Amino acid sequence: MSVNGDAPAPRVTVVTPAYNVAQYIGEAVDSVLRQTFTDFEYLVVDDGSQDNSVEVVRQHAGHDPRFRLVPGEHQGLSAVRNIGIREARGRYIAYLDGDDRWHPQFLERQVALIESLPPDVGLVFSRCRLILENGTVVFYQWQRAGRYDFDDFLVRSNPARCGSSLLIRRSCFEDVGTFDEDLASVEDLEMWLRIAERSKTPVLWAGKHFLVDLRLRPGQITRDRSAGDDAMRKLLDEQSGKLQRLPAGLAYVRPALTTYKYAGNDSLADEWAAKARSAGPAQLVRSVAGIRLLFWNTLTPAGRQTVRSAQDSTRAAVKAANLALRGGIGSRRAARNAARNAARDADRDADRDAVRPEGSSR
Fold it and tell me: Which CATH superfamily is domain 12-215 in?
């Protein structure tokens, strides 16, 4: 229970899970405390960090009365998010991961959006920009604005992209429970599907503004692939049969494509591609992801490795060029540029309803 339980409840509870993110979490905290919408409480839940994340958080939060640090042992992301749910007093809950950052109007726009929509909307989410470790914006993740349902979220493999992009009614968690702490990954998608299937507010809604910077870090894609693959397999096997408007095979398109592109597990990718093909070629060619899957599925193993190597070389060259031009993590130049460009670029781009082909990904 919050130590501020007798105080008037804020409209929003912001929760930042913190685990060994000392290099980045200062930016995250600053981006929350600089929000133009101010009726929120801010909980940073430490997941047993072994670096100086807690010290960095305290330094940046100072004596802001909205801030509270919740210490804890290392339990994992889902457990930390669940602590935030239990501690929350706000009508809405928003998560910001410790290595991401928000546009100053994130809460203002998200609260205004959800309160302008029908009462059956359980959550809203924004578009994201991808940034390198040093804060350089390298890509805009576009998805169509408007209404989404269970089928959309499963077939599009979580259009919200990341947990930092959403504003969620606290009542959703009262309806469907908390995050599954046994899942090694895809815990976000599993929760959003549960809300779309079982909550009293099942509609999911996408805004048109780019309000989150999602940081790309080494090891994000390659971490514990076997556990992640098992979690995705379990989710697909349990949820694909629930699709109502779309063929079940379409649920496997994006997981198969991602596995081909990044994991190098061709046997699993081939298995999922075969299930995706069961939807029929006419369905697959209707999306960019389906066309890309057909391309990867027709390559030989050697051909796939050649394409992966070319992708890796391109990413490494882009990163090296940006680091050379703008400085690395921790440099004064990087910090100065990150602060200046976050304000300038985000203000310029928040209102841009960019036209990005469907299926664009990091």
Answer: Spore Coat Polysaccharide Biosynthesis Protein SpsA; Chain A (3.90.550.10)
Cα(229)–Cα(276) distance, integer angstroms: 16
Sign of CA dihedral 217, 221, 227, 229: positive
The two most distant CA atoms of the chain are separated, in Å, by 64
DSSP 6-23: TSPPPSEEEEEEESS-TT
Could you give the CA distance from residue 76 to residue 94 in angstroms, rounded to a whole number?
Answer: 18
d(CA 79, CA 83): 6
Give which of 135, 140, 138, 139 is closest to 326, Cα–Cα: 135
What is the rounded distance in angstroms from the CA atom of residue 296 to the CA atom of residue 288?
12
**Which residue spans of the chain are classified as CATH 3.90.550.10?**
12-215
Unique residue bearing structure tokens 């409480």? 41
In sequence order, the 6+-apart residues with CB closer than 8 A to the CB of 145 are 206, 207, 208, 353
- pLDDT for 112 equals 98
pLDDT band at residue 225, thresholds of 50, 70 and 90? confident
Distance between the two ends of the chain, CA-based, in angstroms? 38
The letter for the amino acid at 294 is L
- DSSP letter for each residue of 237-274: HHHGGG-SSS-GGGGGHHHHHHIIIII--HHHHHHHHH
Within 13 Å of residue 222, how many CA atoms lie on the same side as its CB?
Answer: 5
Span 173-217, pLDDT tens digits: 999 999 999 998 999 999 999 999 999 999 999 999 999 999 998
Q: 11-21 burial, b for 16+ CB within 10 Å, e for fewer?
A: bbbbbbbbbbb
- Which pair of tokens denotes residue 355? 């036209």
